[in-house]
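Repro case for the chain-ordering regression, as requested:
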Amino acid sequence: MQSESKSGAIRPDMFTPVNRDSKQSEKIERPRLTAWQDIRLRLLSNKLAMTGLWIMVVVVLFAIFAPIFSSYDHFTNDLSNTNQAPSKEHWFGTDDLGRDLFARTWKGAQVSLFVGIVAGLIDLFFGIIYGGIMGYYGGKVDEFMNRFAEILYAIPYLLVVILLLVVMEPSLTTIIVAMSITGWINMAWIVRGQMMQLKNQEYALASKALGAGSMRIIFRHLIPNAMGPILVTLTLTVPSAIFTEAFLSFLGLGVQSPVASWGTMINDGVKSMTIYPWRLLFPAFFLSLTMFAFNVFGDGLRDAFDPKLKT
Amino acid sequence: MIRYVLKKFMFMLMSLFFLITATFVLMNAVPGSPLQSEKATSEQIQKNLEAYYGLDKPLIVQYGVYLKNLVQGDLGISMKKKFQAVDKIIGDSFKYSLKLGLVSIVTSVVVGCILGIISAMYHRKFLDNFSMILAVIGLSIPSLVIAPVLQYLLAVKIEAFEVAGLNRPMDYVLPTIALSAASIAFIARLIRSTMIEVLNSDFIKTAKSKGLAGHLIVWRHALRNSMLPVVTFLGFLMANVITGSVVIEKIFAIPGLGKFFVESVSNRDYPLIMGITIFYAVILMISRLLADIAYVLVDPRIRISGGKAGK
Amino acid sequence: MNFKKIFSTAMAVTLAGSLLAACSNNNNKGGSEASSSPSASQASQTPAETKTPAEIRFTLASEPPSLDPALMVDAQSSIVASGLFDGLTRLNSAGEPEPAIAKDWKASDDGLTYTFNLRDDAKWSNGDPVTAHDFEYSWKRALAQETASDYAYMLFYLVNGEKYNSGEATADQVGVKATGDYTLEVKLNTATPYFNSLVAHYTYWPVNKSAVDGKPEWAADASTMVTNGPFLLKEWKHGDKLVLEKNPNFYDAAKVGFDMATITLVEDASTVFSLFNTDKIDWIGAQAGEVPSDQVPGMVKEGKAEIKTIASTYYYLFNTKQKPFSNVKIRKAFSMAIERQSIIDNVTKANQTPAFALVPPSIAGSEGKSFREMYPDQSFSSENVEEAKKLLAEGLKEEGLDKFPETTLLYNTSEGHKAIAEAAIDMWRKNLGIELKLSNQEWGTFLETRKAGQFGIARAGWGADFNHAINFTYDLIHSKSGNNDGKYNNPEVDKLLDGSFSATDDASRLDMISKAEKIALSDDMAVMPIYYYTTVTMQKPGFKDVVSDYAGHLDWAFGSKE
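-- result from build under test --
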């Protein structure tokens, strides 16, 4: 500073001309953000959603690593230590065959989460495509596709599951396939409802008038705008897939023992709830906690996705 | 409108035919038979049984006979519950499911709407968070856990309610809570999510700028426009809830349709499986039709696509 | 406003719904007699039991599929129907026959002809007298092809019974004849010393011709039921409950202690237990509800529950037609590596008896001794891990296997079976170092898979049809038996069992049966017995003569309440 002032005179080459563009000066601008950056920012600022995300991360980490580091496995019986209350030895207690519930709870987490997430994604994929096409085209296409979905939806689910379990080896894959056969239909109907509502809106009509193809309109314009309800439905689909697995376990069509899922553990635990409450408590708590996390994170995601809520 | 409904009705009959065929094939493909028993009888006895129930005839003949009887309104008699008519079994059990189903649907819609509206009106304020967390908790705990815990605490411990049965109005309380917890939460979230969008839309802003009072905006404009996804959801909810929840019916010993359906499948009681499937499908289709009609009533922007088919 | 319309419609529907609920409630109460309203006493929360007549309340897990004696096949039906019908004889709780409709009976010297003298004061609920003709009609009806009875084979003891069932003989040729209104003459194929017990079985119960003929649905509704037992079917709300009331015209009405019985249908064991604890039912156990297994030790310790052995055996089938279990040493190794007492103490928890044979302790032998007292099974085989390892190695060598092939343990879906299966595979893992796959299947699929022999080991259980050892041997280990799903086949065993039918006296008959059993279970390890069942029962104080019978079915009809 001082040396500059001593050097004295102001010279013209110290200045650069301002580019005087009348169009630019009209612009009101904030920092440019891509849509995804924008979503991320909004998501990060949502405390409840972030709590949900963290819970999910922790549960997933435990599901992956706890069985590895636990000194017990999920299947070895210890008939001299059945139905033990939580202790230093067994953090979550033991079950009716003396198996460590800590190991079983996290093994169960692995199975339930895997089933839930895979089934959820399959539903999302088919639901969006089917529902999008159904809702956008309407008329005969809608009628035909809707009939098909309705028939599939009305076929007794239990028959399908029993048949699948006979035709395919009873395994996780079979259970996921069984759940996905009809699972996507709900999603498709939600998407269809949104499509029917959105397709007559101005921006869709405008895009059409400008000559955009149907697929482009559906997947570029309509689906992103329908993302709110879709995500809300998705956050329900993952839990409902986990619940469905529990229900199948309830009917004895779930995962084969001694592998555990939260569903099978809850089913076992409910029966002895009054005397060995921990057998219900731990799987039920972590299942519910995970469901909670999925739901609040899904809500946050929905808020973040929705451009209309930008403030 | 009448033409539209008639047309839908024709499609329903066609769907029903496909469904009957699919279920018939599926049911016979599943291993096991209604006439099998754990203790082996003589071959002759087995033959007599098959002859008696017409299962000795080729499948295609059995199918023909079934369709013929069905057209005459005869659903046949159960093969396992000796000489009980299928239509009577369905009628008797549906009474229970319908009563419980309607009570819990109304509970879900009323409580769900209230929570949802509160959330949307106080968006990002305490009440929003509070009611959403409440809703999410309801969504996070499986009915498999809620039902027995409620039963134990409220009926066994403090004996405020009956453990089982559905004899007096008070008996509806526990099953209804267990049955509607998830759908309350789902409706609340749907209402909230669409209502926030609607409240930010132009026509609401117009209404506001015209000086319409806050609550009138909510009632006259926002709620009506937020009902659309709820109406879609009600379509499934009706079918699911009215036809009974296996878990709730089992825990509270309610002789509803869900219980009989699971029983019929595990007994391979062919006439009962067919009967309940058809009944279930008709309920499902009617509620879908009602949902479609309600769409039009709720949202004038949707034109009935079926009406355009003649163009 | 359209929305308002929808909303008000919804409200109207709700109101209608709740009115509906209220109405049908009223109907229930109005429908039954005001004086002894069962639903009112059931529904009322205040225990006004002191005023109401002596009542017994219990639950069944599922509805009786039929109350027609010819069509009944299960315990649920027989528990209800034992109050509604009365046969020639009736088994007491020890499983011994006592006179009922038959005053007395005698067998011919060759044991092939039985003559029953019937009492003349028994009446049907429609007023008709119960005669020998009713029995003749009923037995022939159960055998007739067009009746399509599952249990017709119970009547194959009669001359030409099986032939009539297959259409090779006429009804007239069947060996049952009413020689007078109150005399019934029965001709048998072979001497059957336990025939007087057999006639207590429900397939032998009478039906009333005028109520039954041409009306197959007669037994599906309370209003069309015609019965001859100590109770009348007052109400049958399908899927919900059955209400029975004392039959005032029963010939031995003084012996009937209860004025009514209310049987509700509740599947879930925890719910049944809660109903008992809130004083809504009086009894759990013996196929009429089940004490949740986790509750058993506590309840027994507090003296609230009782344990009684019953005539049923829990065992695992080996698939003897397939490697590796075609090898007897491997079968023995598997059986020896199981710690039965440990399974009983820690898993099933109802003080069952470890089993090494098939005939359960409560099955009668002769001269007042039980079959097992005469022929104990402890020496049949032992549990010995070292020996098991040795046998396994030898067996594998004999079969030319260098490692144990992949094998499945099949069981039908149920918490109890699952826990036992999990305990068993864990014992084999620890004791023999073998990892078996578990496969649970839903009942219908399970039966078909097991019948088709698609398993290595499969769960099985057998309960008594009648109180005789032949029921646990011929049916389970004879190569021609349809229940021998492990396909065990030893001609020597077959010969002994066939021979037992033509034995002239009881002692030599039982001897042959016991020899066959010993060969099959001790030398051949045809199946792997695990335990003899028990039933855990709980009842409210003040009840008398409400018990589990020898077979483990609730016997309540002649009980009473103080």
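Ordering looks correct now. Chain A touches chain C through 28 residues (CB under 8 Å).
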